[in-house]
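Blinded run. Sample ID left blank on purpose so nobody reads anything into the name before looking at the predicted structure. Input follows.
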Amino acid sequence: MKALNKMDNLDKGALLSGLFPEELQNIQNAIQKQCGYFLQNETAFREGWHKGGFFTAEFWYRLVQDAHKEIEKNQDKLCKRPRWFADHFFDGHNSLFAVHCLIEYADMDECNPQLKQAIHLLFGSEKLLQITLNEN
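Blinded prediction complete.
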C-alpha cells in the first residue's frame, strides 16, 4: 500500500470503498442527493458562481452531470464492486465532485462515525465549494 501522502484521489477512493463496502450504497445515495440538489438549483448556483474561482460553473456542472449519468446507468451495480465504484467516482476530475459529496455526507448525522473519520483522514474536512444561493 502507498503512503497516504503519496495517494491520489483514486487510490483513496479505492481504499475507502474497500474498507467500507457496506457503506457504498449510502455514499452513492449521498452523491445522488448532491446531484439532485445542484441540478434543482442550477440557475441560482450559476448566477452566484464566483468567477475567479479554481473552476467554472460549467466545469462543475459537467462533473455533476457525469456523476448523475453514472448512477442512472449503473444503479446498484456500482455498490456491489468497490473497485468499480472507486473507478467511476474517484478517477480524474470526477473525484472533485465525489470528494465534495463525501465531505458533505460526513457532516450529516446519518453518516457512520467510522466512515466519517476515514473520510476526514483521507480527504480532509474542508469544503471544496462555498456557494450561497442568490435568493431574491
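Unblinding after everyone has recorded impressions. The two ends are 51 Å apart (CA to CA).
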